[in-house]
Amino acid sequence: MTSMDLVAFDQAWERFESWLAARSPADHAALRAPATTAEIADLEGKLGFALHPELRRLLERRNGVVEPEWNSGSDTGVFPAGNILPLGHRLSSTAEIASMHEILVDVGEDNADADLWDEEDLAGHLHLCVPFAQPNDGGVAFVDHRPGATYGHVYEMGIGSGDLDGTLWGSSLTEFVRAVTDALETGTPFTYYWPVTFEHSSGRSCIEWEVRS
Q1: Could you give the number of structural domains in the chain?
Q2: 64 within 8 A of 56, measured Cβ to Cβ
């Protein structure tokens, strides 16, 4: 990957954050500060391989999002700022990535032991899939780190529901971020997911993604 590719990612991410800052400030405020060099190095040590340059750059910009804010006595209970990606995915921190990757490795090993997947299947290489976002339903969005044509592809997989085929969300993180921002700017869907506004009883609002077939 060239430096120009990372410039393209930076431009895409800045456009995304600019939209959040202007149109959904609560979501923008939920973004954490950048990961440190030591945190990224520790993550790569746990993974056993280097991060894809785009994923590294994402962590260099934002180390996940803060936890949802619970409101005792509120009608809705929680203000879910930070669910900024389709399906309510929240950006993961380096520590959360390491933890979820361990789960993916275990799932992949279980599949291999049961001979459930062919060698070329994505689910047979979950140890080379690095998560970067999670919803609250057991799913995961990750970057494919398998060498070859799919290196850097972005997939979403319903681990909790047992759907391990994976859905392609973009050929790169840059493409994925651009597509999500297009949806936010135009009010059009990203695949089956439509961006709408969640209005909390406190009067604040944030992004919510509705599923429409």
Answers
A1: 1
A2: no
Segment 74-108, tens digit of pLDDT: 555 788 999 999 999 999 999 999 999 999 999 88
114 CB-contact burial (10 Å; exposed 0-12 / middle 13-18 / buried 19+): exposed
CATH code of the domain containing 160: 3.40.1580.10
**Which residue is it, tokens 């202007």?**
22
Quote the CA–CA distance of 82 and 91 in Å, as a whole number: 8
Burial of residue 30 (number of CB atoms within 10 Å: 0-12, 13-18, 19+): buried
Tell me the residue range of the domain where 70 lies: 3-211
- What pLDDT, in 10s, does the model give residues 185-194? 999 999 999 9
DSSP type of residue 104: H
